[in-house]
Amino acid sequence: MSSLTTSISPGSWILVTGASGFLASHVCLQFLERGFKVRGSVRDPTQSSWLLEGPFKSYAAIGAIELASVPHLGADGAYYEAIKGVAAIIHIAYVTNIVPDPSDVITPMVAGVRSIMNAAIREPSVKEVVFTSSALAASSLLRGIDNGTIGRDSWNDAVLEAAWAPPPYGVSHAMANYPASKVAAEKEVWKFVDGVNLHFNVNVVSPAGITGEPLNKKHIEGQANWVVHAYRGNKAAMDPLQASFYVDVKDVALIHVAAVLDPEVKSARLQCWGHSAHWNEVLSIMRRLRPQKKFVDGYPDLYHLEVSLDQTESLTLLKKWSDKPDRNGWTSLEDSIFENITNPYLEG
After folding, report:
1. Which of 6, 18, 275, 341 has a beta carbon 3.0–4.6 Å from 261's, enabling a disulfide?
2. What CATH number is attached to the domain comprising 66?
3. How does 263-286 read in b/e, with b if 16+ C-beta sit within 10 Å?
4. In total, how many domains does the chain have?
5. Ramachandran class of 36: left when φ > 0, alpha when ψ lies in -120 to 50, beta otherwise
């Protein structure tokens, strides 16, 4: 790995937006471990000061990681200061509100893309930009809805239409707004790529459900911590999405690293869905790992989503940029679940 040619020089500054998030914190750590410097944008540096402690402490001591305050990701000029002197940007920050009004979720997400891209256009040091999208931008991941093969031009346009359906706004809007915001935001990214002569390369990484090691307690409590929902028997979260795809957080972070550093990756749309799995399989793994714990009963109908895709490009990058010479494929679901439930933040 250390002998690979990189698109930016080691020691360069990387801007990671939403740095305190589950995925973003792992992205920060992996860049630091590779000799890069990280500027993490967060809403409140005081509440995110844990990014300067624990596994980050030695890097903070030498000034290799710093926090920048960006309280409103969609505001004009929000990133002008944070972006100064950086060689690469990884835009992971997203609107976490689960609310019925799409203008409170989709609109600021799109504005955030415009804000970060306009800032990058102003900053001559920027050479690489990576945007974190979602598998939900390409597929609904719902049984009986998408049964085909996902390709470069696949879009979940139906959820965008559902989110922007006329008011009164209700639960159906609230459920559609997050995936719709990912569709709208990623399309806005490609609009910049197609419409402006950019001085930097742009790639997109699209993970499915993310599992694996939390670096902070708040990563356990998030709405999208699927393994913890199963661990705690949260049927309200489990029932609507019995089958999905799951990928380890460290794998997704490494794909982000590769999307920045690999000079051969240009205008890529990297799907990182990992393993197709049903809750029954997740529960079976957890019963093996924690035989003393009582888990909720399995579902009577074990099935997998019929949607399919080619993840070869992402898997090739995973192997190429891994520090494990025998690396072959995604981290196993069992290993990822083990790290998800074996940590100091999950009780019981």
Report:
1. 6
2. 3.40.50.720
3. eebeebbbbbbbbbbbbbbbbebb
4. 1
5. beta
DSSP state of 254: H
Q: Give pLDDT tens digits along the chain (348 positions).
A: 568 999 999 999 999 999 999 999 999 999 999 999 999 999 999 999 999 999 999 999 999 999 999 999 888 899 999 999 999 999 999 988 889 999 999 999 999 999 999 999 999 999 999 999 999 999 999 998 877 899 999 999 999 999 999 999 998 898 999 999 999 999 999 999 999 899 999 999 999 999 999 999 999 987 778 899 999 999 999 999 999 999 999 999 999 999 999 999 999 999 999 999 999 999 999 999 999 999 999 999 999 999 999 999 999 999 999 988 788 899 999 999 999 999 888 865
Amino acid identity of residue 146, one-letter, is: D
| 3-state secondary structure at position 139 | coil
230 and 283 in contact (C-beta within 8 Å)?
A: yes
Within the chain, strands assigned E span: 13-17, 37-42, 65-69, 88-91, 128-132, 149-150, 201-207, 209-211, 243-248, 269-272, 275-278, 308-309
* 332 in a structural domain: no
Tell the residue number behind the tokens 């019963």, with chain if given.
287
| Paired residues of 244 in beta bridges | 277
Count other Cβ atoms within 10 Å, centred on residue 118. Answer: 18
Residue 339 lies in a domain: no
182 assigned to some structural domain: yes
Q: Match 């992402």 to its residue by tokens.
A: 314
H-run or E-run covering 188 = helix 171-195
| Domain boundaries, position 130 | 13-211+247-274+308-326
How far is it, in rounded angstroms, from Cα 182 to Cα 309?
19
From CA 93, how far away is CA 326, in angstroms rounded? 33
Closest CA to 134 of 187, 202, 98, 171: 187
Instruction: Report whether 46 contacts 34 (CB < 8 A).
Output: no
3-state secondary structure of 127: coil
Q: What is the crossing angle of helices 249-261 and 22-33, to 10°?
A: 50
Assigned domain for 6 exists: no
